[in-house]
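Protein entry
_____________
===
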Amino acid sequence: MPLPALRIGLFAWDNRRSLGRVLVAAVAAVLVLPVTLGLLVAAALAGSAPQVAPAGARPAKPMINWVVTQRYGCTGLGFEPPRGACPHFHFGIDLAAPAGAPVVAVLAGQAEVFPPAGHGGGYGLHVVVHHGDGVETMYAHLGGVAISSGQQVSAGTVLGGEGSTGLSTGPHLHFEVREAGIAVDPISVFPGIFGPEGQAR
């Protein structure tokens, strides 16, 4: 064995405990450093990232699933009222599911049932939920209701069942969103609920 190699070998043997500690420390650093750096980066990003809202505050889908039968906007249906340049305008989105499908509140608020008795009017039996700041959601043509006027509801509370009361050609939910009393496109207000064509996400 060459002399330099012999000297290195003897040095390593005499200092084996110290070298062992160095080796253990090096391995630990290699294994732990990426995890530590990841945690530090995640902590730094958490301070600037928007916080996720509590599950109860997230909008709920008005029904489990549906097929869109009519979208918000100009329509050829003669019984719809005019709006702007449209001689007939549909103020919400029509979602069809099996008759009796549960209809739930999209957001928390105070519910109001219309009409208090009977199924008269174009919307038939319907519920309006007042969310505050002038925002309301409406659930129309219900076959029955599961809540009462003045009741506070949460996102996901069952309001009633899908039906075909009022001016309706078949079982469906007419879902409408109003801001300061003006109907707006539900798809643009709730993109997390509706896909671009209004289907359930």
